[in-house]
Records
---
Amino acid sequence: MKKCISFPVDDLNIFKIQMLNWVNRFNIFCLLDSQQYNFEKPAFECVLAAGSKANLEAQAGNAFNALRKFYAENKHEWLFGHFGYDLKNETEKLRSDNLDGVGFADLHFFVPEIVLQLEEKEVRIFTDDGAEKIYRQIVTAAAEIKETGNNAVVVKNRITRHGYISIIEKLRQHILLGDCYEINFCQEFFAEDAHIDPLYIYNRLTKLSPNPFSALYKLNTRYCLCASPERYLKKEGSKIFSQPIKGTSRRNPENAEEDDRAKKYLLESEKEKSENVMVVDLVRNDLSRICKPGSVQVDELFGIYSFPQVHQMISTISGEVEEGRQWIDCVQATFPMGSMTGAPKKKVMELIEQYEQTRRGLFSGAIGYVKPGGDFDFNVVIRSMLYNQADQYLSFQTGGGITYNSNPELEYAESLLKASAMMKVLE
């Protein structure tokens, strides 16, 4: 267990910038930032893991067994890392043959050299030694993030508008034939020969679109710049809960009447509510695999939450974890998250592989932490840019839940709406 020393913080936002400028020297780091949202009290305003004392990288096939071994060796340490979407190939015996331009491993976890927990007025530094030196380095770091180089890139669509709409029609036919009830379909936006400063672009993204599950994640030459509004799974003690998002409407904060109308649309839309309730049922089923019988419940159904660009419909499902279950069991039983697949899970993942033209990789996976003792919190990697600095390849994906009642034109428009903040940042 690392030593913990607390230090004062005069200005939360300036300290965050200084932390980013300081941590950029490390080859591996993970910043998780709640962006001062107060939907529910977070464990901390943000947490930063820097450097790696030990790490595990694994591909689907034997990844969860490798993780169990790694955790057994490091269960008294903090762990940070990710689960990639293509772990489905292990959990559901599927395969992925589409293009992957970024190349994150299916699973990666590391034991950090340094962990910083930031609150409004203090920062707690966990490290084996040298906390005072780390604090001095941070408070003397630059208090702004300056642009370096030309960060404008040319973004292309992997699928044309006509192609996207044609695929939605085909998916509606699968639903009509009874192959599935709902399917999450996504398209890739990408840029080649992209020379960006990840720190600068992340800062721009989270200023334009601050969200409660934001993350800046670096693994050597690969980055995830994440402005996610969605939690995948959190465990505190014996309680576990998930908060899937299904249901989106465009915000108009300059016009209060129009903005209220967009919220009302979500509350009254049978299409949006049917999407949401199907995912709620899927999550309830997933959680029942690792929770005590009768303990799984819906704490909130059809909650409407507002973010800078969109209103979202979020439901909360919780349960009591069975005794003897390890945190890895909880992930393995529920991954990938239902909000990014659809129902029934295995069939829609086969259709996703058939109709999407890019491997999802880290997109629609999860980034988060595990505390000593096994409590954890993981986001859903959406509204995120993935960047391979060595190959200068930039990628982000957006989409939505498709039901038989989906309007293909409106689904395409929703996909563009979800991409708008990232497009704007890259202009």
---
Amino acid sequence: MVKKFSWRKAALVAAVVPMVALSACSAQGGRPTDSGNAAGGGQVANTQRIKVALITHAAAGDTFWDIVRKGAEEAAAKDNVELLYTNDPEAGRQAQLVQQAIDQKVDGIAVTLATPDALKDVLKKASDAGIPVVSLNAGEDVSAKLGAFTHFGSNEKLAGEAVGAKLAEQGFKHPICVIQQQGHVGLENRCGGVKAKVPGSETLYVDGKDMTSVQSTATAKLQASKDADVIIGLGAPITLTLLKSVKDAGSSSKVASFDLNAELAQKIVDGSVIFTVDQQPWLQGYMSVDALWQSKRGGFKLGGGQPVLTGPTIVDKNNANDVLKFAQQGVR
């Protein structure tokens, strides 16, 4: 299923991502110094400059969001967009950031929907103000209902099932799936997908904002669960911390993951992590900004009312070396 899905995604990306590659703009979406060309040599759009807000639920220190942001910045550089990036993992404060963007009269909003109930009212205000919205990364099931014209991300239930199927194929029977933010719909779907394929799976909740706590909680769980044969992190920093927990607990559990950064890719190459599922966050950032620009310049609406999928793609020992070189460049 995963290979077939990946081919479908690759064709879609080829259709919607422009071929030109540009260097990233500044943290606030600043335009390249050469008004005619970006640093990478591509032509900057000659359309009217617009302002786009990218608002995520990113927690401090999570490298996943650095990759999302890099993709968004590169699209902004190409599209002559001023990019306003803000983030807060607390749902109420993320809603305030959306309101702030509305007050700034931005031309488009890209937003993650990890906690959709907290954002539905403010996104209604964005729609009432005539501001186009796209969602990314989390909340694809409610994206259209909340007013977004498309969503860029992985189907998290499908990603979870892909992980569960691979674990079942390799003979694992008692996974521990570690959720670092309780109530996050995407993370819950991931662990639910794993359990659908491996019924012996159980969920462990940790505080993803405190890696010391993550390590100690997971260590205690592994010490108490002698039949646990694999522990799954739902993000690269969490997974890297779980490697320490396995060692601290003296456990024989293997480690699997969702998402990717350069350090995790190296761990897969080294054999410390058996595999991860990559949702290609760089594309999520890039395509979200580019879709809002396309909407502004021509009324284009990507996706035909359906989510545009950027994953899942399995990264294991068979392809980790190839992926590692891109991860080291910050685009995987």
